Amino acid sequence: MDISIDLNILEAEPAAQYHAKADRYLSSHQLLDFIRCPWLHRKKAVGLIEDSDSASYLIGRAAHTLILEGRDAFEAAFALGGPINEKTGKPFGAATKAFAEWAAIQGKPVLSHDQIDLVEQMRSGVEMNDEAVALLLYGRAEGVVRTEYCGTPCQIRIDWLHPHRGIVDFKTCDDLTWFEADARCYGYHRQVAFYRAVLAQALGGTLVPVHLIAVEKKEPFRCGVWRVGDDTLAQAQRENEAAIRRLLVCRERDEWPTGYEEIRVLDVP
Questions:
Q1: 77, 108 Cβ separation under 8 angstroms
Q2: Largest CA distance in the chain
Q3: Which of 89, 122, 172, 234 is 20 to 30 A (C-alpha) from 219?
């Protein structure tokens, strides 16, 4: 499939600014929450549930920044390492008062020296995979598209868009052996199908290829590349569009079921 994407269709926008518009635009994460449980989606939408940044999420975010956006963006986005204890010549521990005070002054997420080393190892893992390197050789990181899709305003922030190879979504995982199972469990195919469909609105209907790059967060830091099958994307798009239709009905009626309102039958062989 020969494609040529004008990367100028992407808006440049900091992550915080993008997420601040979640009350006006439907995102892939919001849609996945709705598919999982409409009541969960609603509680997050009205601020009754806030997503907390776990240590695992922090590492993933740091890896995204270093590997996709580059070292300058990485050093600008994170407080790296913490201050050095002049007496010992070593960094203060993350639990010390000095470290906490320093982090507050920085006003940025803090990465310890061990966490920085971990992210660097992940970067090296990606660089060992020729297919991943080729996908990330040209393109643009974290580009934003906003448009109407299925009758509702939507927004996407694409990890990487290659002008000739389409969407590249970057994931981190504990064990690459189980990545395909994780992809099904977490609905990665639905997420990227949403990206592809929204992007198509800005490309005059062109549906582009989609690849996933995944790297381990522990030794041996293996990196793998997957092309998401066209049939899988088409089925996921149909499921997404059906979910958006249900979402619009829930909004109109202000009814947000859990999905477990009725008695179910449990048969154990």
A1: yes
A2: 66
A3: 89
Copy the structure tokens of residue 76: 């600008």
CATH (one of 3.50.50.60, 3.40.50.80, 3.50.4.10, 3.90.320.10) for 9-46+128-251: 3.90.320.10
Q: How far is CA 63 from CA 124, 190, 225, in A?
A: 11, 23, 16
Q: Which of 65, 52, 51 is nearest to 22 (CA)?
A: 51
Of 22, 242, 233, the residue nearest 146 (C-alpha): 22
Note the residue count of the chain. Answer: 269
pLDDT digit of tens for each residue in the chain (269 aa)? Answer: 689 999 999 999 999 899 999 999 999 999 999 999 999 999 999 988 877 666 788 899 999 999 999 999 999 998 887 655 556 655 555 556 666 676 677 778 888 888 999 999 999 999 999 999 999 999 999 999 999 999 999 999 999 999 999 999 999 999 999 999 999 999 999 999 999 999 999 999 999 999 999 999 999 999 999 999 999 999 999 999 999 999 999 999 999 999 999 999 999 98
Give helix 38-45 / helix 28-36 axis angle, nearest 10°. 130
pTM: 0.91
β-bridge pairing 110-111 and 223-227 = unpaired
- Residue appearing with tokens 């449990």: 266
Q: Which of 44, 45, 41 is nearest to 33 (CA)?
A: 41
Reply yes or no: is the peptide bond before residue 14 cis, omega within 30 of 0: no
Tally Cβ neighbours within 10 Å of residue 249: 11
* Angstrom distances, CA of residue 128 to CA of 114, 125, 223: 21, 5, 8
In whole angstroms, give the CA distance from residue 18 to residue 35: 22
CA distance from start to end of the chain: 47
